[in-house]
Specification:
Strand 5, helix 9 and strand 6 form a beta-alpha-beta unit. Helix 10 runs parallel beside helix 11. It contains twelve helices and eight strands. It has 316 residues and is α/β, with parallel strands linked by helices.
């Protein structure tokens, strides 16, 4: 489904007052009920062939990420090689969805994954704080796109959002969307800084109204990142948005998802909340680095009956 077509809710963004009225008119979140449902879905038992399918699906949904000041071209090339062939000894292992890097490493990553299905995603807009003027943010995006980025991960201005200046946030997202061109846009809320579930719901709808192709929980750079509860809330939002507009938007939990067990719990959330249409890496991603190693070890365990140990897979 296209994510740039006019939709049934376009009139709510006509002015600051109409946008505020809409966002504050969304149903309040029952925090106890939300957390209880997320916990309940996390107890589902997935075994044998279903587990093997879930592990391969999770591998294919990983945005393999390195976002450190010490990143080097060599590290990014190694990450790209791992994204294309996560387990060099078993070519049946699916490739990851993407590699995610800073804009200055996009060209290196693009070369490393050339000829494969792996996309190159780039964080932009003064990631992770987002504290920069709009022209600086847009230059950041254009640099990444011109270097070959297939996807842009932007951060919203949390200060503006928390101050209730929703139209400023909306206008920045739409400007970044335009600057991204053909690249898909993931809008990061930094849910750990939004304080309440009501704010996460409002941010989700705001991002989708502004044209996000994905809504994303976190940068991975703060204390609280992706949780089952905040991801469940965002999955409800994309489900309801499609029901009202016909536009499908993806979800990307990022930060703190480190084990196969965790990843499978999130896949259960997807299936039970948004539905099977989102069980595809075009619509659901994991922002992660260490997660892939655990998925590979669990995959090897299912294939051989024994653990190969953490030294069997590359350490990122």
């Amino acid at each position: 489904m296209p994510t740039t077509a006019p939709h049934a809710l376009a009139d709510v963004t006509a002015s600051h007052s109409t946008l505020r009225r809409f966002l504050h008119g969304l149903p309040g979140v029952d925090a106890v009920g939300l957390e209880a449902r997320a916990a309940s879905l996390g107890t589902r038992s997935i075994k044998t062939t279903a587990k093997a399918y879930a592990i391969d699906l999770a591998i294919s949904m990983v945005d393999l990420t390195t976002l450190e000041g010490a990143d080097t071209p060599g590290k990014v090339r190694a990450l790209g090689a791992k994204a294309v062939h996560p387990d060099p000894t078993d070519r049946t292992t699916p490739a990851t969805a993407a590699v995610c890097v800073y804009p200055d490493m996009v060209a290196v990553a693009k070369e490393a994954v050339a000829g494969s299905s792996v996309k190159v995603a780039s964080v932009a807009t003064a990631f992770p704080a987002g504290r920069a003027a709009l022209d600086v943010k847009l230059a950041d995006v254009r640099d990444a796109v011109s270097a070959g980025a297939d996807e842009i991960d932007m951060v919203i201005d949390r200060g503006a959002f928390l101050a209730g200046n929703y139209m400023k946030v909306y206008d920045e997202i739409t400007a970044v969307k335009e600057a991204s061109g053909a690249a898909r846009l993931k809008v990061i809320f930094e849910t750990g800084e939004l304080s309440t579930y009501d704010n996460i719901r409002r941010a989700s709808w705001l991002g989708m109204l502004a044209g996000a192709d994905f809504i994303k929980t976190s940068t991975g750079k703060v204390a609280v990142n992706a949780t089952p509860a905040n991801t469940l809330l965002m999955l409800e939002a994309v489900r309801d948005f499609r029901a009202q507009t016909g536009v499908q938007v993806g979800v990307k939990p990022a930060g703190g998802i480190r084990t196969s067990k965790d990843a499978i719990k999130f896949l259960v959330l997807v299936n039970e909340t948004a539905g099977a249409d989102w069980l595809d890496n075009h619509w659901f991603r994991f922002g992660a680095s260490s997660l892939l190693n655990d998925l590979l070890m669990q995959r090897q365990k299912l294939a051989t009956g024994r653990y190969s140990g953490p030294d069997y897979v590359t350490v990122d």
